[in-house]
Amino acid sequence: LPFLSETGGKDRRSGLILTIPLCLEQTSMDELSVTLDYLLSIPSEKCKARGFTVIVDGRKSQWNVVKTVVLMLQNVVPAEVSLVCVVKPDEFWDKKVTHFCFWKEKDRLGFEVILVSANKLTRYIEPCQLTEDFGGTLTYDHMDWLNKRLVFEKFTKESTSLLDELALINNGSDKGTQQERERSIDLNFLPSVDPETVLQTGHELLSELQQRRFNGSDGGVSWSPMDDELLAQPQVMKLLDSLREQYTRYQEVCRQRSKRTQLEEIQQKVMQVVNWLEGPGSEQLRTQWGIGDSIRASQALQQKHEEIESQHSEWFAVYVELNQQIAALLNAGDEEDLVELKALQQQLSDVCYRQASQLEFRQNLLQAALEFHSVAQDLSQQLDGLLGMLCVDVAPADGASIQQTLKLLEEKLKSVDLGLQGLREKGQSLLDQISNQASWAYGKDVTIENKENVDHIQGVMEDMQLRKQRCEDMVDVRRLKMLQMVQLFKCEEDAAQAVEWLSELLDALLKTHIRLGDDAQETKVLLEKHRKFVDVAQSTYDYGRQLLQATVVLCQSLRCTSRSSGDTLPRLNRVWKQFTVTSEERVHRLETAVAFHSTAEKILQECPEQPEAFNEMDQFDEIEAVGKSLLDRLTVPVVYPDGSEQYFGSPSDMASAAEHIREKMKLVSLKKQQLRQPEDTTPES
């Protein structure tokens, strides 16, 4: 409004002064009328009752414009205007005044019009109430007032509109049903302007009004404002109070709305998690019931399960986040939300824990199946190795190697026993886990799937048991065969040892059994010892024969040809025949020696006073014959059936034995001579 303003000055009746500055340019009466209406709407009714003094500054305008403005005042504000002061230019309108006298038109106009020069305006208005343009001292900055008025108008407009919007929002939030409340908030939730900005503007405006200072003038000169009613401090304060009240309610509505929105978002996310876990997630687990029939199959199922767990882990992460949000709302939530939040939390936790338990159960089941198949594979390999060992024919070199092989066989069989025991334990554990699947099957009939798994596990264990039983039977046969082979080797070794013992007895007989005794008594003792010696040799021979007979039986049982019985038996018989021939020769010599010594000793012990005992000379002839025969046998070797010969002892040993016999024969010969010539016997004889 560059040409119309309220300066804040007052006339002598305390009425407000309205200044209308006119210019040379064309003045729009319509704009002037609108401006007047606006300015007259600012004061209160009390101020309007005191009337207005209007100063029409026509110094820069034409008379017809001034007249038109004055007449327009009649139509616009006749009741409020009490005096119109038209400020004329110096000596410019004098001739035209006669054409229209305002004082004559007072009754028709409704107010008094005074045509006055600017320097005489103080006659009607105090100088302190006039601006400098009219020679007064009132400080007034129209542009600053205009800017502040625009701020006030903008604040009033925005605050009024904002109050209506906030009231609509707040009142909508107080409706009865939840649906109506949410629908009202949805339609009018966001105000058109920022309440914080409007409040800040109002506080700044009120602060300036209360300080009675405009800060827009260049020099910062203090300006005396109009009355409080004119400056609308109460209106600003009332608007601010209403705004604060409605904005506080609006913030609470927003908080409730935010809480409700957050609760709805959490509820939506909870239902997304629940729907997925109970839908696609559970369906994935429903289709995974097998345990595989091998290690590779179980590992493939584990890999598939890991993919399922990976998908679940994403939803479990959402569950953790939602649980934290719900916990935070529970700590800071209202009583009315606690029940709903706890119900959501409980529902989410139940579904997630149930699904996690199913995943863990499935993982444990697959791990148990993998361990079962791993043990079954190891046991199968052990059985294959044991069977391969049993299928190879045993051809040991000696009994020690057979014992080593038998020990290895027993160790393998023990390892198989332990493996089968471990397989049974793993299988039973797996069966126990499978039997628990029905507890979380969601009503699905898992009898068929479980039966397939149970049949497979039991089939594997039964197959391994049968294979192990077959191997045990084969081990029993192999053990018996190997023990028979050990016995065969032992019999052959003992038979060979018997031959060695018999050979040693023969050698001892030939080399050490050479004495014939010095007298009959000693010879009889030697003969008795020889018979015992022969008994030992007979026992050794019989023992060897029994062992060789046992080897024949074992060979027949083992269906094999003895490698040593054919050699050992002839050796045993040959040595035994040699021993028998040698023993008979030894017996014959000892018996001859007994006869010789007995006769000789009888002859030599006869008394000379009994010559009748020696009447028969044939006894001497007999003893001489026996002695010669014995001497002859000492020089003759033992001849074996194979034609080989062997002497008793060494030649010196035989010569010593023969010399002893010859000496005794000489004694007998001397005795014979004495008996024939008793009368010639002398001490020298």
Question: What does this protein look like?
Answer:
The protein is mainly α and 685 residues long. The chain has four domains: 5-139, Phosphatidylinositol Transfer Protein Sec14p, CATH 3.40.525; 141-168 and 195-212 and 224-278; 286-478, Methane Monooxygenase Hydroxylase, Chain G, domain 1 (Up-down Bundle), CATH 1.20.58; 513-676, Methane Monooxygenase Hydroxylase, Chain G, domain 1 (Up-down Bundle). The chain is built from 17 helices and seven strands. It has helices at residues 29-41, 45-49, 63-76, 106-109, 142-173, 178-187, 195-211, 228-231, 233-286, 295-332, 335-391, 399-435, 447-511, 520-558, 565-605, 618-635, 651-676; strands at residues 5-10, 16-21, 52-57, 81-87, 112-116, 638-639, 645-646. Strands 1-2-3-4-5 form a five-stranded mixed sheet. Helix 1 (29-41) crosses helix 3 (63-76) and helix 9 runs antiparallel to helix 10 (295-332). The chain is rod-shaped, with a radius of gyration of 75 Å. Keywords: Repeat. Belongs to the SOLO family. This is SESD1 protein. InterPro entries: CRAL-TRIO_dom, Spectrin_SESTD1. Residues 1-142 form the CRAL-TRIO domain.
